[in-house]
Amino acid sequence: MAVPDPDRARSKAASMNLLQEVMDHPLDPGYIAAKQRLRDRPRHTIWSTATWTIVAIVAGVALAAAVVQLRAPKPAVTETRALLASEITERRESVRSLEAQNEALHKQISTLSSQVLSAAGTATATANLGEAIALCSTPVTGEGVVAVVSDGPGADTDDAARVQDSDLQALVNQLWVSGAEAVTINGTRIGPTSAIRGAGGAILVSLVALSAPYTVQAIGSANGLQIAIARSNVADEFSQLHTAYGIGLEISGSSSISMPGAAIPALKYAKPVAD
């Protein structure tokens, strides 16, 4: 006769108790407690919702008012800005007036110099006229070429699409080499002491700030200058700049170009040229 194993009987009873517990309590006690807390939480009423809505609106209006007040220009700042703008305008007008007076005096000096040289003799007058042309101190008129150099389409965001001072230097040097007798950039005469250099985002020519597009005029043989530029390395360089960045160069001939005289530089040191 077989004797029942007491350990096996207890194991079976424990398994039945575990199954009974799962059947009677399918949810975890912690989950039940959390769910009960959610049920016991007071529900939002219409008044509480309206209260929170009003609070949010008031906070938004207060924040918007603070932002507007912070961004609004202060009276002192506005007055200072207006004063500076007025002073800048006055200084510009004063500079224009002085430039006009300087030009008038320069023309007067040129006229008087021409009268003195004419009285001195033809040979002396011719020699001094050549020196005046070399110094760019006398107005000149004649045929020549007009070259317009413009920035690329992306110049506002890409500095590489802007015309650089080196680009204008190369073009002006090529015009001199090709036989130009006088050159201007945006109306500013290029003389022996003139410098073309960059300063920040601007290009200075004889300390005069210029902006694109840059109109370069050269007096000389119109056909000769155009052919020389077309055959030069400068034309190839500008072609590459146009392909890469859209920088433009347009050259055309002109039957009559007039250029003003440049200011005569102050002579600080000189010595005779050895024969």
What can you see in these coordinates?
It is a single chain. It contains eight helices and eight strands; from the N terminus they run αααααβαββββββααβ. It is α+β, with helices and mostly antiparallel strands and 275 residues long. It folds into two domains: 49-138; 140-259, 2-Layer Sandwich (Alpha-Beta Plaits), CATH 3.30.70. A hairpin with a 2-residue loop joins strand 5 and strand 6. Helix 4 packs antiparallel against helix 5. The model has no long low-confidence stretch (mean pLDDT 79).
Q: Give the SSE order as H and E letters.
A: HHHHHEHEEEEEEHHE
Order of strands across the biggest sheet? 3-2-7-1-8
CATH architecture of the largest domain: 2-Layer Sandwich
Largest sheet: 5 strands, antiparallel
Count of discrete alpha- or pi-helical segments spanning 4 or more residues: 8
User: Based on helices, strands and strand pairing, what is the structural class?
Assistant: alpha+beta
The CATH superfamily of the largest domain is Protein of unknown function DUF881
- Report the average pLDDT across residues: 79
Cα-atom radius of gyration: 43 Å
Indicate the proportion of strand residues.
15-25%
Distance between the termini: 148 Å
Share in helix: 55-70%
Poorly predicted parts: none
In the CATH scheme, the class of the largest domain would be Alpha Beta
The geometry reads as elongated
Family: Belongs to the UPF0749 family.
Coiled coil: 88-115
Keywords: Coiled coil, Membrane, Transmembrane, Transmembrane helix
Pfam families: DUF881
